[in-house]
């Protein structure tokens, strides 16, 4: 044996991972379009307004937002798109940035437990389990909640000195990007609907992309070439390659046992 993977094996993996890879490309592009529409700027300013300048309250809001952004739009959106907005927000409030930036970094990790495509590890595990999108989410909901709450409490304790400095400086909240927020809400609802009817969630992701891309292109906030880059075709191919390697390196008997144990787990039947 040479250890070389045949084209037929690549084709089998592509058919198995295809819907998930389409979802990954779509959700990366969707996050970019949300940023171009001002969604993250609005969320950062709204968090500052709701916190009323109280650093501990702001931390709790940031943890919740980072967990949600990570779960729905992948950890890349939290690190690349949400964190710079939050840094600007804390500077405007004149509170210490460290607790909130650390929150983004930690929740980009623990917040990615929930959905199959929240991070690369989930993506590869999801393909091997044979679970549906909804069942995977149900299985990971409790660990995700516990991990996020533990992060929040640990950050509150570790940065307790930094969180004593509150702010009396207000932040102007920009006009809500209502159309983009409506599309974001509809896309999240689409994920739920597709999981219920056992359809690929890529449909919901790409419908959201189309809905945001049309006005963005008309307003020249983005270009076709930039959208291609933001969908990260190189990264998607890298994930496919990892999927091929992992599939061929794990004995079939272990994969079968894993699928059976996941399907019979109590959380999977919810």
Explain what this protein looks like in three dimensions:
This protein is an all-alpha fold. It has one domain (7-269). The protein has helices at 7-36, 39-51, 55-93, 98-110, 120-129, 133-158, 178-196, 202-218, 224-230, 233-249, 252-263. It is globular, with a radius of gyration of 20 Å. The termini are far apart.
List segments where confidence is low: pLDDT < 50 over at least 5 consecutive residues.
250-255, 266-270
Oligomer: single chain
- Using the CA coordinates, give the radius of gyration: 20 Å
Strand content: under 5%
In short:
The chain has 270 residues and is mainly α.
SSE map:
Blueprint: H1 7-36, H2 39-51, H3 55-93, H4 98-110, H5 120-129, H6 133-158, H7 178-196, H8 202-218, H9 224-230, H10 233-249, H11 252-263
What keyword list fits this structure?
270 residues; 11 helices; disordered C terminus; mainly alpha; 75% helix; 0% strand
């Amino acid at each position: 044996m040479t250890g070389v993977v045949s084209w037929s094996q690549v084709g089998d993996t592509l058919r198995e991972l295809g819907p998930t890879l389409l979802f990954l490309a779509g959700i990366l592009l969707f996050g970019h379009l949300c940023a171009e529409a001002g969604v993250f700027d609005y969320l950062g300013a709204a968090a500052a307004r709701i916190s009323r300048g109280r650093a501990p309250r702001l931390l709790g809001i940031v943890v919740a937002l980072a967990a949600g952004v990570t779960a729905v739009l992948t950890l890349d959106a939290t690190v690349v798109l949400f964190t710079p907005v939050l840094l600007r927000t804390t500077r405007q409030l004149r509170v210490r940035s460290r607790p909130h930036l650390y929150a983004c970094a930690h929740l980009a990790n623990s917040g990615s437990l929930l959905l199959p495509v929240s991070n690369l590890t989930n993506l590869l595990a999801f393909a091997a389990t044979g679970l549906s999108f909804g069942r995977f989410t149900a299985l990971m909901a409790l660990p995700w909640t516990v991990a996020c709450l533990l992060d929040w409490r640990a950050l509150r304790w570790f940065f307790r000195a930094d969180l004593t400095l509150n702010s009396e400086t207000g932040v102007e909240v920009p006009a809500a990007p209502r159309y983009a927020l409506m599309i974001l809400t509809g896309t999240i609802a689409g994920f739920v609907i597709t999981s219920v009817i056992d359809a690929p969630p890529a449909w919901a992701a790409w419908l959201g992309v189309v809905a945001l891309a049309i006005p963005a292109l008309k307003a020249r906030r983005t270009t076709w070439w930039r959208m291609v880059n933001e969908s990260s075709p190189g990264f998607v191919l890298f994930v496919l390659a990892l999927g091929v390697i992992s599939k061929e390196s794990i004995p079939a008997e272990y994969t079968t046992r894993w699928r059976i144990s996941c399907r019979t787990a109590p959380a999977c039947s919810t």
